[in-house]
Amino acid sequence: MTQPIALTVEAGLRAEQDLLAAVCAGEQEFGLLFWQPSDRALVMPRRLSRLPGFEAASQASAASGWPVLLRETGGEPVPQSAATINLALVYAPPRSEGDQGRIETAYRRLCDPICELLTELGGNASLGEIEGAFCDGRFNVNLDGRKMVGTAQRWRQSKGGQRPVGLVHGALLLDDERESMVAAVNCFNQVCGLEQRVRAESHIALHEKFAAADALERLDSLYRQMLAKVMAV
User: Fold this and answer.
1) In whole angstroms, what is the distance from residue 61 CA to residue 63 CA?
2) Could you report the per-residue pLDDT of 63-111, keeping only the tens digit for each?
3) Does the pTM of the predicted model rise above 0.90?
4) Residue 106 in contact with residue 94, Cβ under 8 Å?
5) How, if at all, do strands 146-157 and 164-173 pair?
6) Phi and psi (nearest 5°) for 45?
7) CATH homologous superfamily of 5-232
């Protein structure tokens, strides 16, 4: 069985950036990382740190057991804990693909294997926004109409600027910690003066519906099959 690497949230975010740097430098053809937090944090894009209420909201979040960390990808506040599995896919698209549609194609390459897994398990998989979900987006991976995976991406140029390299990230809710996660997001948003409020019932954890003991092993296989086809072009 594929086991995710246990890392603090800070170390996990750093490992993703290191993987992106390695592929950009040509040290690796691609990167695939599964990691599971060994602590808890509320992770959000760096742009939120410029808001007037950020410092007070960060202090309130830390006091409630959810210290704030900043990430390089976009989106909104996302709670990270041992209930989460992070999937990081790093690759350079074939030159034949060009830049048009690069962002959407990258999301599809991250999301389609997860949807395939959910379908194999007997679930109803879909992509799209879910009202009341934290860090909502049209490339959420949803199980039976509730958000299970949030996604984001960031692009850099490879060494010498010859081609773009993407870091495409998914945060998969493996176990049910929805209530405390939603409370953490709502606490931060309220103190920071952000209007968004999220709801626990808008989310679902994989293990709430399926035991899926070999889910990560299957995902690893699906991603590697996909990457082999991409790299062969």
Assistant:
1) 5
2) 999 999 998 877 889 999 999 999 999 999 988 887 789 999 999 999 9
3) yes
4) no
5) antiparallel
6) -65, 150
7) Bira Bifunctional Protein; Domain 2 (3.30.930.10)
